[in-house]
Amino acid sequence: MKKSRFVKIIVAFFFALILPVVSVTIFEVIQHDKNETLLESIYQRQLDTILFAVNQNCWINFNSWVAELTAQFNNKSTPFPNEKKTAAVLDRFIRSYPSIQGAFIRTDVGKYTVSLEDELLFQKEPIAHEKSINELDKIILLDQKAILAMTDLARKGYVNPHVLPWKQADKKQVTLLLFPLRISEDTKMIPTLAGIFIDNLTYIEEIVGRKFNTMNESNFIFGVRDTLSGQIIYATEHVESEIFERSEALWILPSLQLEIKLTGTTLEDFTQARAQTNIIFLIVVNFILVIGILYIIRYVYLEMLLAQKEKDFVANVSHELRTPLALIRMFAELMEMGRVRSEEKKQHYYKTIMAESTRLTQLINNILDFSKIESKKKTYKLLPGNIRALVVDILDFYQYHIKQKGFVIHNSLELNLPQIRIDEVAIRQAIVNLIDNAIKYTDDKKIINITLKTENNSIILSVQDFGVGIPAREHKKVFQKFYRTENSLVHNTKGSGLGLALVKNIMDQHAGQVTVKSKVGEGSTFSLIFPIKLKNGA
Ligand code: ADP
């Protein structure tokens, strides 16, 4: 087969299939990283949005507290309520919200009204209580600047509390939120202030936790971290690791941080798993494609090989037909001219013409039978027959031809073989093919051994020669159609490459087998094996 044609096909494949596929794969791999980064940032933004919503909710909640107290005390046209009334309002207020542990109002003249849920916030005894208030006032005056700035903002309609951590005797984490209650025109003076003491943990459970739960995001775990200790102090689910994906300060209580992560995995693991799945998918697709391409290349290669063999076949067969025809014609002409006088020579010419025309018939039969087999039109008529008689008949018929080629036949044919069902014409053709090959592929040691015996419930017919032999790797291939081994003798001997393929088909139809034992330089033995039981039903 011409190599250049095959190379051209491979190149065509490369440009038509492999190149686009490789380009797409490389593009996918490059694009893949970008996609994953994009995906991760989208996820992060989604998590941030959820945290933002929780924060906003806390803010709205705080504003509702501001609104509630402001409604009671903001009316500038009326005098500020007396202490008793103020205390009553504060009492009611702190009792309505579990996370509020206490509240106070400091008027613009520095007068305090305090209402406490948790007594530990302030000292209880009157003197100590007074001391606590003095301390609180000191703190407030110390933060005067910040409080005035906050008041300024509130004047513009934006109430942003001034936040102070509150030291507590029982180590409970308490935060004080201060905000202006009644804003005066005087920008240099601390206005009437309200203060709310919040128990951080109760606030988280009551306000933040409830919001987490209403969001019902089963894909996420929420947590709250105390930034001072670095510990997670609240989580919607038990967490093994304290590492969350995204975090954001809780605006209202800045010492706390809202955190969020995906349930069961991390964002990185999640995107990595996705990346892995995509890569595996890409590899599998490419693998299937490569297998497909290899299959197609192999198929094309075999088809081209077959086409080449068919071409060789035509050349070989024409040559094989021409040689016996030339011989027949030559001898016939000699006879016609009456030049051959001796009876012995005449006999020799007759026999040559007979033998050569028989060979021609055999060759043509091979081709015709093979074409019938290919088009599935070949049928065999299996009838009880005597295989020994058939072998004797063939040897008798070909004796002259064999002798003329300088061959000696040794045969050992077992007597009293059982009858088996055979198609005599087909088996004759198979045996003649084997003998013909033994002659064709022998150089020097021109001996052919033919044996017929029974063994293991089979009748075995073997044709042994001492010719060129067949390399082990080709033992199977010689039975393929058009197959011819590569050696000089085979090269010089013309043949169709169909003989053994035909023998194999014939034996298959007899539920039998054809086998070969051969060594290069030592010779070959081809055996036809007929099962006795199967075919001996007659
Ligand atoms: P052909 O003889 O027409 O080429 P066959 O199908 O009969 O085709 O044989 C196929 C090939 O097997 C031959 O070309 C030859 O190479 C090899 N072969 C067959 N018989 C023998 C043998 N007895 N000794 C060596 N080689 C053989």
pLDDT below 50 for ≥5 consecutive residues: which ranges? Answer: 534-538
Shape by Cα distribution: rod-shaped
Largest beta sheet, briefly? 5 strands, antiparallel
Task: Order the strands across the largest sheet as they lie in space.
Answer: 2-1-5-4-3
Number-wise, the strands total 16
> N-to-C SSE series?
HHEEHHEEEHEEEEHHEHEEHEEHHEEH
Q: What small molecules accompany the polymer chains?
A: adenosine-5'-diphosphate
Radius of gyration (CA) equals 54 Å
Classify the beta-strand content into a percent band.
Answer: 15-25%
User: What is the average of the pLDDT values?
Assistant: 85
Percentage of residues assigned to helices: 40-55%
Number of helices: 12
Spatial separation of the terminal alpha carbons: 49 Å
Helix-strand category: alpha+beta
User: How many structural domains are formed by the residues?
Assistant: 2
Short description:
The chain is of the alpha+beta class and 538 residues long. It has 12 helices and 16 strands.
